[in-house]
């Protein structure tokens, strides 16, 4: 099976020359290892999503509703009016190919349908056939539709959509290079919305969405378990630092509501980042009397609705503001997460605002006004921490991170949907001396996806993930070989879940850290004991047992 | 594969023959000289407006610019004001650079993979598409502006100046216009890229080759009239002025080649609104480029925003109240 594919075997397959023949006549081959399991009916039912049923992508019959073609046609029509992006992007691509070799999934698989332009053409061909004058006329002439590049909507086309729209991590790298700013991620979003009209989602998205909706977070952690988890970290941290850092939950009247992706609470190594936040908040409480609360209701920053439809995204996002209002906090602080921040930056205020019951964010410790979040009232934790560091409000012992030789992975969404580039770097450099950038074409706005974004972080599609993550891993390997980099820092919970597996596969000597883990590790808590281990309970540099 | 460009190539050739034979053989000057050009211009204008209105009618629900640099953040962090603008002025500069200098295309890189002990994926700067595209568009622009001399009497000074500059390299007589040569060369380059670059060839449709062949045909006929067959310039000017002033006349002594040239231009004009060539207008309207990244500073309104069903805190607490109380979590309603 797919997970037995060795790195060498995978590399042998990399070839960027498409086979000859016409892509329109090359039928899709749905291959295990490259796709995620189908959405379970229960999960769709929670959201009253259409066509909830048991189905299998490998089956011939996908149990579609009878009028499925009409549903798709109307779905497209509706979206063409609602989204100018969609309409323009359907019309103006000149197929120049500038985006072709920019997608990590193409670079890792060599599958020509993973060229962004072709991914979009999958949908565009149907659009041309059904919605353009030329296409409509030519489709009546025998062989004519092919002239204008149109094709009718068939089950095979639908399967191809499903396969390739769930082989796009909506990372937007292609968009950076397109002369018209055509954003294939936007087309994928529309494609997935259309597929959702027929109940064609994957389970790794549908179930988290349903959990978020019900319990507040994508893992379905219930309130008491959420608290247990953080209590457990509190115990560990007490052992490490000698200080009780117990957090507060659902506290009315706190200064700030803190929301982070639940991945940080439940999965290693995100949990260490979570501990980093806790250490920081304790420090701020003791030194500056800043009151931060967590919420068990709004206990998820990540928004898997984003990978489903705009409507689902809005339904899940509503909790952040609702909870901030109920608790009466001043503003909201957001943790390290990729797509959560794309949603917060580009959608939240429009969908669920205005947040006029909150105050314009000011850092109560430094007096800095966060001008850039005046309207959403939501600040990114690296913006917040960078400001504290700049004003010398935090004391660090950098030597605790001296064994970490670090490079930084820009997560796609904050990088290309927000422009959060310097803040995390500033934080890292404040607590570590060994920092090296990966090559220029692989960082900042040109950063490469971890290969598991947009809900593709499942176990069954591991071959796709390892192939898609190849460009990222390749750049990490480069700095590993050149500068002995052993730490890949990032500000995204999906990255913290996906990159360890990726590194283990391609660059096993590199470990994945969140930025706030490094911060928490270096921060000198008032009254702390002499630390001998880091947050992972591994010996600090100079504290190793010399048993050799 | 081949049929993808053989069909459009044959098509353009037939168009040429149609006009040439129509004029030389059937004497249909009035049709190819008057009816077709007016119809084409009408189709172009109407179609163009229709398409742009169609785009403009679609909503822009969210502000989703692609950011290519540092956001506006803390005062001491240097923002990239052009690639990640938060003001209208920044957006303006970004758009000007995009439209006039193809800035995004300038970034283009080429990826290659070496299967050896290093297994490195390398990215090299790929400038040829940018050069080719820029040369093509600017040469085309100059050619069009130069042709204004046929439609304006007296010829404006700026058109004369442009012609002077364009023809500054003087090799024999008549002076060579650089723009025409560059246009032809750039189009041939873009065509060659489409045919020989495997990736580009794979994504290309017949509809991508057609305008290239058409433009090659137009450039080739134009060049040959100027340098080789020496069309009767005065006759042409009489004719075009007639069209421009809505008093069309068919002059003597202007041959089939000219009508074929004119016919292909007309086809191109009429083809623009129904094709990808509308990118010339679309580029202005692309929401990922023409919006400021001030999402968190300023509220953006979605015209079709509608209320959705959400799972409220009250429902949540009802569901988990006992467990919450047991865990010592605060609740709104105790019982
Ligand atoms: S770069 Fe843009 S215009 Fe060129 S092929 Fe890709 S999407 Fe189309
Ligand atoms: S958005 Fe990312 S994953 Fe999707 S096509 Fe573009 S580069 Fe590939």
Detailed description of the structure:
Chain B: GO terms for molecular function: oxidoreductase activity. With 548 residues, chain A is mainly α. Chain A is built from 24 helices and 8 strands. In chain A, helix 17 (338-352) links the parallel strand 4 (331-334) and strand 5 (378-380). In chain A, helix 3 crosses helix 4 (84-91), helix 9 packs across helix 11 and helix 18 (381-390) packs across helix 20. Chain A is globular, with a radius of gyration of 24 Å. The two termini of chain A are 41 Å apart. Chain B has helices at 3-24, 29-57, 88-101, 103-106, 128-147, 157-166, 178-196, 198-203, 206-228, 233-244, 256-271, 279-285, 313-326; strands at 109-113, 121-125. Chain B has 13 helices and 2 strands; from the N terminus they run H-H-H-H-E-E-H-H-H-H-H-H-H-H-H. The model of chain B has no long low-confidence stretch (mean pLDDT 92). Chain B is elongated. Chain B has 2 domains: 3-304, Fumarate Reductase Cytochrome B subunit (Up-down Bundle), CATH 1.20.950.20; 306-335, no CATH class. In chain B, strand 1 and strand 2 (121-125) form a beta hairpin. With 335 residues, chain B is an all-alpha fold. Chains A and B meet through helix 3, helix 4, helix 6, helix 8 and helix 10 of A and helix 2, strand 1, helix 8, helix 9 and helix 12 of B. Residues 102-103, 105, 116, 119, 168-174, 184-185, 188 of chain A line the site of one iron/sulfur cluster.
The major beta sheet of chain A can be summarized as: 5 strands, parallel
The end-to-end span of chain A amounts to 41 Å
Shape of chain A: globular
Count of domain modules of chain A: 2
Q: Largest sheet of chain B, order of strands side by side?
A: 1-2
Strands of the widest sheet of chain A, in order across it, are 1-3-2-4-5
Strand content of chain B: under 5%
Report the radius of gyration of chain B as a whole number of Å: 28 Å
Key features of this structure:
heterodimer, A: 548 residues, mainly alpha, 2 domains, 5-stranded parallel beta sheet, 3-stranded parallel beta sheet, 8 strands, B: 335 residues, Fumarate Reductase Cytochrome B subunit, 4 iron, 4 sulfur cluster binding (chain A), oxidoreductase activity (chain A), Cys_rich_dom (chain A), 4Fe4S_Fe_S_CS (chain A), iron-sulfur (chain A)
């Amino acid at each position: 099976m797919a997970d037995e594919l060795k790195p060498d075997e995978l590399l042998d397959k990399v070839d960027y020359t498409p086979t000859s023949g016409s892509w329109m006549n090359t039928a899709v081959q749905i291959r295990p290892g490259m796709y995620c399991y189908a959405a379970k009916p229960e999960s769709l039912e929670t959201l009253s999503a259409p066509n909830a049923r048991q189905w299998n992508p490998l089956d011939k019959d996908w149990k579609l509703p009878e009028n499925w073609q009409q549903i798709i046609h109307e779905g497209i029509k509706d979206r063409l009016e609602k989204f100018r992006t969609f309409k323009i992007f359907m019309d103006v691509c000149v197929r120049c190919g500038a985006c072709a070799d920019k997608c990590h999934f193409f670079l890792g698989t060599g599958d020509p349908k993973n060229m962004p332009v072709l991914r979009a053409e999958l949908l565009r061909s149907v659009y041309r056939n059904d919605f353009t004058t030329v296409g409509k006329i030519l489709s009546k002439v025998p062989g004519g539709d092919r002239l204008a590049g149109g094709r009718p909507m068939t089950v095979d086309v639908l399967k191809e959509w499903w396969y390739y729209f769930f082989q796009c991590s909506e990372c937007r790298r292609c968009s950076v290079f397109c002369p018209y700013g055509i954003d294939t991620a936007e087309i994928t979003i529309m494609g997935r919305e259309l597929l959702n009209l027929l109940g064609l989602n994957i389970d790794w998205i549908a179930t988290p969405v349903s959990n978020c909706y019900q319990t507040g977070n994508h893992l379905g952690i219930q309130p008491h378990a959420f608290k247990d988890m953080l209590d457990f970290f509190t115990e560990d941290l007490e052992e490490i630092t000698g200080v009780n850092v117990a957090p507060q939950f659902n506290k009315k009247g706190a200064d700030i509501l803190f929301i982070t992706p639940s991945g940080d609470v439940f999965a290693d190594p995100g949990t260490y980042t979570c501990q980093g936040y806790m250490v920081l908040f304790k420090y701020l409480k003791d030194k500056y009397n800043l009151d931060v609360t967590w919420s068990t209701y709004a206990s998820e920053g990540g928004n898997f609705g984003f990978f489903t439809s705009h409507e689902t995204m809005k339904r899940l996002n509503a909790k952040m503001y609702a909870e901030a209002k109920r608790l009466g906090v001043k503003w909201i602080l957001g943790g390290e997460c990729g797509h959560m921040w794309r949603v917060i930056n580009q959608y939240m205020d429009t969908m669920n605002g205005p947040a006029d019951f909150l105050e314009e964010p000011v850092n109560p410790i430094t007096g800095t006004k966060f001008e850039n979040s005046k309207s959403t009232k939501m600040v990114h934790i690296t913006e917040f921490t960078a400001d504290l560091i700049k004003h010398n409000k935090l004391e660090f012992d950098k030597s605790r991170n001296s064994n970490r030789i670090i490079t930084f992975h820009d997560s796609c969404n904050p990088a290309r949907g927000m422009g959060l580039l310097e803040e995390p770097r500033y934080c890292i450099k404040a607590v570590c001396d060994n920092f090296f950038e990966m090559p220029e074409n692989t960082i900042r706005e040109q950063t490469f996806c971890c290969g598991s974004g947009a809900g593709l972080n499942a176990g069954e599609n591991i071959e796709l993930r390892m192939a898609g993550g190849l460009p990222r891993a390749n750049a990490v390997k480069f700095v590993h070989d050149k500068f002995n980099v052993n730490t890949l820092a990032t500000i995204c919970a999906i990255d913290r879940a996906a990159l360890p597996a990726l590194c283990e596969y391609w660059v096993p000597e590199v470990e994945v850290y969140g930025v706030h883990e490094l911060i928490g590790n270096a921060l000198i808590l008032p009254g702390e004991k002499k630390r001998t281990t880091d947050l992972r309970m591994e010996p600090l540099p100079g504290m190793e047992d010399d048993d050799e | 594969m081949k049929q993808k460009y053989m069909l459009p190539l044959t098509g353009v050739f037939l168009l040429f023959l149609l006009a040439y034979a129509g004029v030389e053989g059937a004497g249909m000057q009035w049709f190819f000289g008057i009816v077709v050009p007016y119809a084409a211009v009408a189709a172009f204008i109407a179609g163009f407006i229709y398409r742009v209105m169609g785009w403009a009618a679609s909503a822009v629900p969210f502000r989703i610019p692609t950011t290519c640099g540092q956001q506006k953040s803390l005062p001491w962090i240097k923002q990239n004001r052009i690639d990640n603008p938060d003001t209208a002025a920044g957006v303006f500069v970004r758009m000007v650079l995009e439209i006039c200098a193809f800035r995004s295309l300038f970034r283009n890189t080429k990826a290659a993979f070496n299967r050896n002990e290093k297994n490195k994926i390398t990215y090299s700067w790929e400038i040829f598409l940018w050069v080719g595209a820029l040369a093509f568009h600017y040469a085309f622009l100059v050619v069009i502006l130069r042709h204004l001399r046929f439609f304006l009497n007296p010829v404006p000074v700026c058109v004369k100046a442009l012609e002077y500059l364009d023809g500054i390299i003087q090799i024999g007589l008549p002076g060579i216009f650089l723009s025409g040569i560059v246009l032809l060369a750039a189009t041939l380059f873009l065509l060659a890229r489409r045919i020989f670059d495997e990736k580009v060839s794979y994504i290309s449709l017949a509809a991508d080759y057609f305008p290239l062949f058409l433009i090659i045909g137009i450039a080739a006929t134009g060049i040959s009239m100027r340098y080789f067959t020496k069309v009767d310039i005065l006759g042409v000017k009489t004719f075009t002025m007639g069209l421009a002033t809505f008093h069309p006349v068919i002059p003597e002594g202007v041959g089939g080649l000219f009508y074929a040239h004119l016919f292909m231009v007309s086809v191109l004009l009429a083809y623009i609104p129904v094709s990808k060539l509308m990118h010339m207008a679309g580029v202005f309207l692309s929401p990922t480029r023409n919006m400021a990244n001030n999402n968190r500073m300023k509220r953006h309104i979605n015209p079709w925003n509608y209320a959705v069903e959400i799972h409220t805190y009250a429902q949540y607490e009802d569901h988990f109240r006992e467990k919450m109380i047991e865990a010592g979590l605060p609740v709104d309603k105790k019982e």
